[in-house]
Write a structure and sequence with these properties.
about 210 residues; alpha/beta; 6 helices; seven-stranded mixed sheet; Rossmann fold
């Protein structure tokens, strides 16, 4: 693949145009969605070990979307990546209760204080993911940046429709349970760098039945 920008400012005005329409997805298969999927290594590997799933990636870098979708066509893979700004468009892409799992793997940390508002995990996104999850759905987050992981924990603990599987205000300590890794995760483990993980479950309500 060609070289791409690692960071894209999600607050650029050009991203504030709604592009996506609701995705037509099969109701009888697990839909798994990765936010900020980049080259989609995680999704390609996940679909290889779980050929029964519907793997969807959301990515803000349009050139990467085109390359990944071209690769999927070449390889006959079910991976599909959608060009979108997840914080603005996720709620419109997925019907309520239609997603089995959301993955947020090593999002951009935006270290500088003035840039923290660009971080992907914020209350509106957490609410949108919770609404899109089916009653037994789950949300998995991981990062090698402590400050970012702590911010994500605070946001997810504030969303009442999901519950922390590890217990309130706790990180998931049992590793990655999905059998596949993104490039960043692979690099962190090879270097012995710490990874902070969060695993939340959709809370059943009286509406869910």
């Amino acid at each position: 693949m060609a070289r791409h920008r690692h960071h894209v400012n999600p607050l650029k005005m050009s991203f504030f145009t709604q592009r996506g329409e609701r995705l037509e997805l099969p109701a009888d298969r697990d839909v798994e969605v990765e936010l900020g999927c980049a080259d989609a290594q995680f999704l390609f590997e996940r679909s290889a070990v779980r050929p029964d799933i519907v793997p969807i990636g959301l990515e803000i870098r349009e050139e990467l979307v085109e390359e990944v979708n071209a690769r999927a066509r070449r390889e006959g893979s079910p991976v599909r990546v959608v060009f979108c700004h997840a914080n603005l468009e996720l709620a419109g892409l997925f019907a309520p209760g239609s997603v089995a799992r959301f993955f947020v793997n090593f999002p951009d940390p935006w270290f500088k204080r003035r840039h923290k508002k660009r971080r992907v995990m914020e209350p509106g996104l957490a609410a949108a993911m919770a609404a899109a999850l089916r009653p037994d759905g789950e949300l998995f987050f991981q990062s090698d940046v402590w400050d970012l992981a702590l911010d994500a924990l605070a946001v997810l603990e504030g969303e009442p429709a999901i519950a922390n599987r590890a217990g309130p205000w706790s990180f998931w300590k049992e590793g990655n349970p999905y059998g596949v890794r993104s490039k960043r995760e692979q690099g962190c483990e090879e270097d012995g760098a710490p990874i902070w993980r969060l695993r939340f479950d959709r809370v059943r309500s009286t509406v869910d039945g």
